[in-house]
Amino acid sequence: MSCTVRIASPLRSYTAGAATLAARGSTLAEVLANLEQRCPGIRFRMIDEHERIRPHMRLFVNTSEARELSAVVRDGDTVHVICALSGG
Amino acid sequence: MALTSSERDRYQRHLALTEIGAAGQEKLKAARVLVVGAGGLGSPAALYLAAAGCGTVGLVDCDRVELSNLQRQVLFDSSGIARSKAEAGRERLASLNPEIRVLAHALELKAANVRALFRDYDLVLDGTDRLSTRYLINDACVILGLPLVSAAIHRFEGQVMTYVPGRGPCYRCVFPQAPEGGVANCAQAGVLGVLPGVLGTLQATEAIKLITGVGEPLTGRLLTYDALEMRFHEFRVARRPECAVCGDAPTISEPRDPAAPPTGTGPAVRRLTAAALHELLRDAGSPAPRLIDVREPYEYQAGHLAGAINIPLGELPGRVAEVAPAGTTVFICRSGGRSLAACQMALAAGVPGPVNLEGGMLAWSAEIDPALPVA
Lengths: 88, 375
Fold this sequence. Notes:
Chain A is α+β, with helices and mostly antiparallel strands.
């Protein structure tokens, strides 16, 4: 399964500035593991040591929120990584 | 609140809109809107609210105008440098529209003053540049039952959402907690000058819709904007029953002051600048501190301080025993965020007085050793 991951602006230092990346996986956990292989360290910015989505991050598969790493990702889906921003 | 002849002339284009008309314009005239943060977002928001005939506009900001603000903060001009933002903004808005009342609140928003300030307004716009203040504003709005239009920006990206108590989620439902170590603000990360113009005018649009009762508010929908790709995305977000302030069993019933500032530390975590660490390492009379670099291995391999041990933050919970139980332990990362989280983990595991290198390797490279590569 191949999907697109849209990266929140504050995490783009891990993706060499790329806003979107292609990734593989049929669940959110697999997609993030695949992303981590190419962007080391990015997963820990989203997922804590207890395997929970961090409380200042929100993950969406297309427009539906994914609150668990077991969320299903289908071929052609877009995973959106949203981060609380502070600038004003 | 009937319109005067002069107001009918000024707002003619609104009066021509059947959705607004005289009734909507009279609602705007009666409305009292508080703009918290007269910065990149607050500038266009306040200008359009004043131009639209919002009867009372309040500006909250304790800062003074700086030259570097003028790239995006269109409420001010070069003659206003060093003036109070609240006061300079008040004059600009009063000049734009003498028919309205503009109030300057040159103060720092705190738990002690938020109730007294907010109770004189019907609607709040959040354009602050500190994440922790966003929680204070949200909590006060939920507790006082005030609608809130909140926006935030970072580099080329922004997000905006409208929160109406009892009609959807609040800010804490969307982002329950600020991250440890904070999120970079505009000064740290940079921002495209026109970006807050887009987001601030969206905030003003939402405020005018809420006041006049037209259209569909952005409640329960998080709107994001990417200026580089020129794309908007919209996401449905539901109220969280477990939310600490608007949930079924709230634990926050009073506005409270923000927790430690983004770069702050807990009382038992010590902070060290790059220069202070440099001095400590050169001081042969002191026991050498233990240096723990919590970055990822690839970052560590690109360049690290002599003698530093690499324990990536993700591995720290399982390897905390490797951290010396006595003596000084300094945690290091790229910019100081992950190392602060490491300090807090170490503290919880019983490591006495962990030290955070403020600004991380970026600060070390900038201040001490520019030749040291930082991945």
